[in-house]
Structure formats: C-alpha cells, structure tokens
Amino acid sequence: MELVLAADPMCSWCYGFGKQMGLLLERRPDLSLKIILGGLRAGATDVLDDAGKQFRLHHWGKVEEASGVPFNREGLLARRGFVYDTEPVCRAVVTARVLRSEADLLGVFRAFQHAFYVDALDTTDGAVLAETGSRALAELGHPVSSEEFLAEWNKRSTIEEAATDFATVRAMGVSSFPTLFLNKGGTLSKVGAGYAHVDELEKHLAAMAA
For the segment 110-121, what is each residue's pLDDT rounded down to a tens digit? Predict the structure, then answer.
C-alpha cells in the first residue's frame, strides 16, 4: 500500500498540510508516499496585482490559523511584476524525482514551499529553483549540483513529465489541493481533501483498512 498525494508547492493549503503529512508518514512507516504535482496555476501569464496579493493574504491567514506555519507577508507585498505560474516549481519537484528517485520527495517539496512562503524567493526562476533543489537534496543525503539540476529542469522530457503529472491529477478527479489517496492493490481511495490533522487522517486510514 502507498499514499498518493496530489499537491502543488505554491498552494498555501498544501504548505499548511506539509507538517501533518510528515507526521503521518512517521506514524505509518509501513506506507510509502508518491507525490503527483498538481499544476494549480501552470502556465499562468497574469501579473499578480494588489487585488491578487490581498486575496492570497486572506487565505494565508486562514492557513496560518489552522496549521501554525509561518508566512512572509512583506515578501509577497514587495513583489513587482510577479507572474504566479506554478509550472516551474512543480517541474522542479519532478526534476528532483528524476535525478534522485530514492530521495525523500516530500522533503524536497517542503523545501520549495519554504523558499516561496518564508524566504520569499522567486520560485518561477530556474536558477533559484536549481539552487533550492540542489541544496535540499544535499541536506537529504543525495547531493546534486545546481548546474546538473538546472540542466535537467530545462529538458523537454522533464517538462513533459510535469505535464503528465498535471494530466494525471485531472484524470483522478482532483478538484482541490491537497488531496490524499490510498493506493491499495492498484485501487485509489480518497483519504482526505484539503487540510487535515494527522489524527483525522489516521482514523480514516484505520477505517479504510477495516
């Protein structure tokens, strides 16, 4: 059995859910995790204006209240000309998966979240993503140079693999992120959609096993 998480690093509720997901894996070491990238705003071209910033700050407040994760609000407000395209960072997670399939992908995923939400880095920039990704992999014991990371990130095959993830998520009927499934013998069953506490997730898994 494995858990399947449909998520996007630049989805604030996915960011809030990261700690609970990590705790669940600690409690259930018998379950592996597969992450499928959602492409929440993949290919977006509109510049984040003041209304868009305020919309996100409103949601960030709700996520912070529910989960306790920190947000760099000043970093968001200071952005100028920022296009909220989530394809590049989703592709960066795919890049880590391609380069170091044995690494803890959730750890890499959360490193990109921290880069965006706390460090206020531009997670649409390839060089920033390569530096963040290579550092995360090194900290997880699977070193790769930022140059190698960036080269893989730029490959057509990696772009296509990210697009395949987006299509897979749509085919799974996912309408919001994060959504967590249990894959049992090739059959996917939904464990939960949206933010949920680890205790709640454990109860759902126990009921599904029964």
Answer: 999 999 999 999
